[in-house]
Amino acid sequence: MSAAAWAVLLAVLVTGWVLLDGAVQGAGATLLQERGHEGGNRRREPAERRVVLGAVGPLLLPGEVWLLAALGVLVGVFPHATADLLDAGSPVAITLIGSWVLRDAGMWLRSRRPGKIWRDVWDVVLVVASIALAGSWGALLGVAWGNGLAALGLGIVAVVVTRLHGDAVVAWRLRRTGPLPVIVTSVMIAAPVVGTAVAAWPRLVEGGISPEAMASLGFVALAVLPVILALQVLAWWLIARPLGRRDTLFF
Known about the structure:
globular, 8 helices, mainly alpha, two-stranded antiparallel ribbon, oxidoreductase, cell membrane, EC 1.10.3.-, 80% helix, transmembrane
């Protein structure tokens, strides 16, 4: 595989992650409240929160497979570009990793013990971490542009768009809307990734390893990609079904 092919694969993997995990981030950010029928915000009851998390829960682990695969490609094939990105945006990267860990902890731990205080504390952690994860991810894209203003703008855009995407996926699973809003928000959430890939393309391709090493790693990619694609199909098949009671049991 050439450097250009690896760069395209990296963009595809990152896009797959933001489509899946963006819905989880958006649902987590709005977990405690939703927009009421009169237009104002209303606080969600505990049972409603479980429904929201159950609606996006099937996307969590498949999405993280895409992210880990993308990190593998970025670090293994483009080490110089990785070093430049971390050098310019290490605080943003640290925030992203920390908020990612806390968000996952909130998802898995909120229902592991009985008690309202335990659940409410983890719900607050989940909301804050989801917003921080979306914002730091958008800011990291801006760092790849090499522009501080782009980092700020894309961070704000990511927070807003993930909320819209999460709401659209939850509404679709509850059969309040059709799939069209999910398609629209999917395009919105993928656009910054595609734009960043185009903007950073020259620096990314020039920061690759030797052609021989790329070719060797290509065999690994050919073995792993079918698994990732199967998980993607499984994830969207799971959320295409109407939300059932068993979907909310774990969360």
